[in-house]
Design a protein that fits this description.
This protein has 17 helices and 23 strands. The protein is of the alpha/beta class and 514 residues long. Nicotinamide-adenine-dinucleotide binds next to α7 and α8.
Length: 514
């Protein structure tokens, strides 16, 4: 990505280059805050009609959008690949996420958004009907990173639109092309109501989004997440943050090592390791450590790296999206080696294109950055541990707490240990899967985030405000508590309150304590 030279008065452009081969693949305008403010004002004008459509009316548009996505799948995934340098398999996964999320939330929208009738509490309220109804925030701001240009925004935009909100989305300035096109598909491709917009630009554009919306859904780094939280606090608007991770994998002596080692390689290398939930640290019980390491090295060695032809599914692992990220990965590997770690495989970036070799590190410890800071690259660091207690202690020794995995054949042990892990999700005998279970929440503990996405109804209700409605069954001329205060009546009310609220006869009758 670079800024192309533009003459004074002309809008600035962001040029996007393919990480695998450096070719220019497109550009988008870098919008000014005032332009973003105008986009937000238009979205607000369109939102009431969208909310009034109700879940069934909105479903029609969501499903037309899904049809459009499928009709344009090849073209969109080529765009994903061109701006990220992913393998075709990694790019294709993004469409799978979009399909699942749209189908799940549109199918369940009516149930999730239904009014909730509840019984009143207390005798005095028995004459009332209580109902909780939900109303969307009018305008949701959606800010996303560069590792999943299509799947990333899709994970959150669907819930907000289904809720009846309008959405202003800002993709990463590094990979803005696919999302710009997908939003164009909403507007021009299917002619949907103008309640979804894509604004492009960098951090300033993101800040302008935060300044103009009623709720922020952010996915990205801890640093930006914290800045957004501060600004949202100043504006007194709610926000939801999905941030970085340093996910541990715990392999116990009774685990299926074949399966666990395959999962370690896939979990660490998928999307070239550029996934918030990728496996970054592995703790293996002493008795099976050597066997596990050798399986991981053999399987990682067999990976085919490159940006394969669209539709070919010929490579396992693609490029790194930014050179800054390559530098972070290289620094962490170098720091580990300087601290005494051994590189059993890989350890360096390729000479051409932005590829980093699949890398296996051993003899690591928690003084090294590869065990403390997010790597976001195709590396896996494996550490020998005495027993499960040491594994849990080390797994929890992190500022992050996004996801995790536990490997054992003992279900009771797995259940017990899952309650000791400090992370928003635990996959047992699998890696990464806990994240994509739409009926349960996905969210980070500690510095990995605030709030959750998905989680059944929560995936839509998080974009709504609750509104309590209390309706009188009997509309009397006056109420016992209304003016004027009548001493006899007020005394009677006080007596009744005591009679009904106390738990023993002495207090019910107001007798003094003996
Ligand atoms: P980033 O925080 O640098 O940028 C994310 C987005 O925020 C971009 O669109 C950027 O333009 C925007 N932004 C930057 N400054 C802003 C500001 N002051 N106000 C508003 N918006 C601003 O993150 P990144 O480098 O693009 O992405 C990588 C990070 O994302 C990693 O830490 C990764 O773990 C995390 N991530 C988390 C999840 C999750 O679900 N938990 C998923 C994917 C990625």
């Amino acid at each position: 990505m670079d800024r192309s030279g533009t003459a004074v008065g002309e809008p600035a452009e962001i040029s996007v280059r393919c990480p695998a081969d450096g070719r220019l693949v497109g550009s988008v305008p870098e919008l000014e805050p005032a332009e973003i403010e105008a986009v937000c004002a238009d979205l607000r004008l369109a939102q009431p009609a969208w909310e009034a459509l109700g879940p069934a009316g909105r479903r029609v548009w969501m499903l037309r959008w899904l049809d459009w996505l499928l009709d344009n799948e090849q073209r969109l995934l080529e765009m994903v690949q061109a701006e990220t340098g992913k393998s075709w398999g990694d790019a294709a996964l993004e469409m799978a996420v979009a399909i699942d999320v749209i189908n799940y939330f549109t199918k369940n929208a009516e149930k999730f958004l239904a009014d909730r009738r509840v019984k009143p509490a207390g005798v005095a309220n028995a004459v009332r009907r209580l109902r909780v109804q939900v109303r969307p925030y009018q305008l949701v701001g959606l800010i996303t990173p560069w590792n999943g240009p299509l799947g990333g925004p899709m994970m959150d935009v669907v819930g907000a639109l289904v809720a009846g909100a309008a959405v202003v989305s800002k993709p990463s300035e590094v990979t803005p092309l696919t999302w710009t096109e997908v939003v164009r598909g909403w507007r021009d491709g299917i002619g949907a109501p103008p309640v979804l917009a894509c604004v492009t630009g960098g951090g300033d554009a993101g800040a302008a989004v935060v300044d103009n919306v009623d709720m922020v859904m952010f996915t990205g780094s801890v640093r930006t997440g914290r800045a957004i939280a501060v600004r949202c606090a100043e504006r007194l608007i709610p926000f939801s943050l999905e941030l970085g991770g340093k996910d541990p994998m715990i392999v116990l002596a009774d685990a299926d090592l074949e399966r666990a080692s395959s999962a370690a390689v896939w979990g660490a290398m998928t999307n070239a390791g550029q996934a918030c939930i990728s496996v970054e640290r592995v703790y293996v019980e002493d008795a099976v450590y050597d066997r596990f390491v050798s399986l991981v090295v053999d399987k990682a060695k067999a990976l085919r790296q490159g940006m394969d032809k669209p539709g070919s599914f010929a490579c396992d692992i693609g490029a790194m999206v930014t050179s800054a990220q390559v530098a972070i990965v290289q620094d962490q590997v170098d720091d580990a080696v300087a601290g005494g770690a051994r590189v059993l495989l890989g350890g360096a970036s390729a000479r051409e294109g932005r590829f980093f070799e699949p890398t296996v590190l051993v003899d690591v410890d928690h003084s090294m950055t590869c065990m403390r800071e997010e790597t976001f690259g195709p590396t896996v660091a494996i550490m020998r541990v005495r027993d499960e207690d040491e594994a849990i202690t080390l797994a929890n020794d992190s500022q992050y707490g996004l996801s995790s995995s536990l490997w054992t054949r003992d279900r009771v042990k797995a259940e017990r240990l899952s309650r000791r892990i400090e992370a928003g999700s635990v996959s047992i005998n699998n890696a990464l899967v806990a994240t994509f279970q739409l009926p349960i929440p996905m969210g980070g503990w500690k510095n990995s985030g605030l709030g959750t996405r998905f989680g059944g109804a929560n995936g839509v209700l998080k974009y709504c405000r609750q509104q309590s409605v209390v309706e009188e069954r009997l509309a009397l001329k006056s109420e016992p508590l209304w003016y004027p205060v009548v001493p006899t009546r007020s005394r009677l009310i006080a007596k009744m309150t005591r009679m009904l609220g106390a738990h023993d006869w002495r207090r019910r009758l107001g007798r003094p304590a003996r």
